[in-house]
Fold:
Amino acid sequence: IPSGATLNAAGSSSGNIGKILQVQTGVSSAAASTTSNSFTQKATPTVSITPSSSSNKIYLSGHIYCDPQTDYIMVTFGRVISGGATTTNISGETYGMGMMTVNRESSISFSYLDAPSTSSAISYYFYFKNDNGSTSVNLGHNSVGASLTAMEVLV
Structure:
């Protein structure tokens, strides 16, 4: 809710704030691995969305399989704005938005409300890294689907 807005029975001053304007989803079952201790883009799944206004926000949700093997894996969302910047960790958190520990294969799910301040096309990806960069960590699985969903939220 914008600062200073007055809510009515419909939930907002305009009756539309918070309305989902569009939904885009990407699905993939491809695996990727890295030994890097810097966030690395996973090529799939990806989802692209073009906000109708630069003031609107993008609600992201994702689900993906992680295999840290003998190390720690950190996972987050990143974005590439058409003709603009690439942000490899939109949460800004050092360890991303999710972490799996040594020898604990599992799926991880998380969400994030992004404020990209653009009406240009945006592509969102999973990014991942190994905490210390010494061994290989795996994101995704060739037999387990992963999904990434972007929803434009009217502000």
